[in-house]
Amino acid sequence: MAARTILHIDMDAFFASIEQRRNPALRSRPVAVIGRGHRTVITTASYHARRYGVRTGMNIYEARRLCPQVVFVKANNRIYTDTSRRILAILEGFSPKIEPFSIDEAFIDVTGSTSLFGTPRTIALSIKKRIREETGLGSSVGIGPNKLMAKLASSMQKPDGLVLIEEGEVRSVLERLPVERLCGIGRKLAGRLNAMGIRTCGQLADCPAGILKSSFGMTGERLKLMAQGIDTSPVASVEEQERTRSVGHSITLPRNTSDTKTLKAYLLRLSEKVCSRARKHGLAGTRLILTVRYSDFHTFTRSRPLPCPTNDTRAVYLHALRIMDSIELKKAVRLIGIAMDVLARHLCQESLFEEDRRRTDLLRAMDTVNESFGEFTLTWGTILESRGETGVISPSWRPTGARNIDET
DNA sequence: TCTGGGGTCCTAGGACCC
DNA sequence: TCTGGGGTCCTAGGACCC
Ligand SMILES: [Mg+2]
């Protein structure tokens, strides 16, 4: 593959910084952005709050204990998604090859942009400047010969970072780098590698392929490549990306329950969320997966194929009920969720796609109203019985396409 | 007073088939 | 008396990312 130049842009404490822009009184204080309800978690901590140990995923009581003066701010998801779109629009000015990686991160391939916009470092500085001018927010940028190295580079200096890893520097950068610093090596993999005496990427790169293959299978081969800084995956724009494979929603209940009537009301609500999103994006479900988390956090799934591809709320809801009825609950339920494996609607055999003209029209009409006036403006009776969500934004949100969060 | 929600990909065991 | 070996599909679980 010809030499490439990839940038990874990572916004600094994205949600928290946005809130501090909106409300100057927050700028001098440790801020943690949270969802709704008492069971929510920290989605982003400002750098000030991080100094006290406040971290993403931490519950609010723990955060308060570590940093009593922390200011909790409820997430304003619509503002975050709007800001994300504005940042992507800025990036589009520098190259068409942009891959949104999450709500606050993106890769951009600037290999063909240097004659127009200058050196990679100049481009990175221009991007950081434009983002700050237009949104008031800080970002960190990593530059590398591939996505893996660009992402590593952006993590090496933040906030307001700019790190360039040249092709010729890859080896020396990785030599003493702990394996878990690479995107794709998490806690478990790192633990297993460490147990084998492998702590750094240099050691991992030197480990015989056979040993990695026998311990990790296919993953082992990839690990060895990663440790050498090799990553051939292209920067894939939203249009180029693989089709959406699944659509799902889940909810941690305001309080644990064993009451199946309550759980079924939530299932209808979740079915409607999943199906309205599938309809909006022309997707049809082929399989439904029900997830249950007990009070003790034990989590399991049960799934069943849908008899024919569908995105009809009623069909999916009834299917969810059948799965639910096959489960004998052993403990009080903390979380319930459904996910659908999906296909593009036009890929479904017409004869197999369950469609009733009048029903399709009804669903379309309801979707239109709900788009304009808000989710669940029009809904089915039993949904009204279920209330209360944690309302945490998903970082897997994408500016376009089926990936989604609650923007309300 | 603990511990969100949205995804993708890989593995492994049993069923089933040739 | 000894007892195939693949391959694929289905399902559940788990690792990883933000
Ligand atoms: Mg960030």
Topology overview:
Elements: E1 6-11, H1 14-22, E2 31-34, E3 42-45, H2 47-50, H3 60-66, E4 71-74, H4 77-92, E5 98-102, E6 105-109, H5 114-117, H6 120-135, E7 139-144, H7 147-156, E8 162-164, H8 170-175, H9 187-195, H10 201-206, H11 209-216, H12 218-227, E9 246-257, H13 260-280, E10 283-294, E11 299-310, H14 313-325, E12 333-344, H15 357-373
Parallel strand pairs: 2-4, 7-8
Antiparallel strand pairs: 1-6, 1-7, 2-3, 5-6, 9-12, 10-11, 10-12
Helix pairs in contact: 4-6, 11-12, 13-14
The structure holds magnesium ion.
Magnesium ion binds at residues 10-11, 14, 104.
The structure holds a DNA duplex (18 and 18 nucleotides).
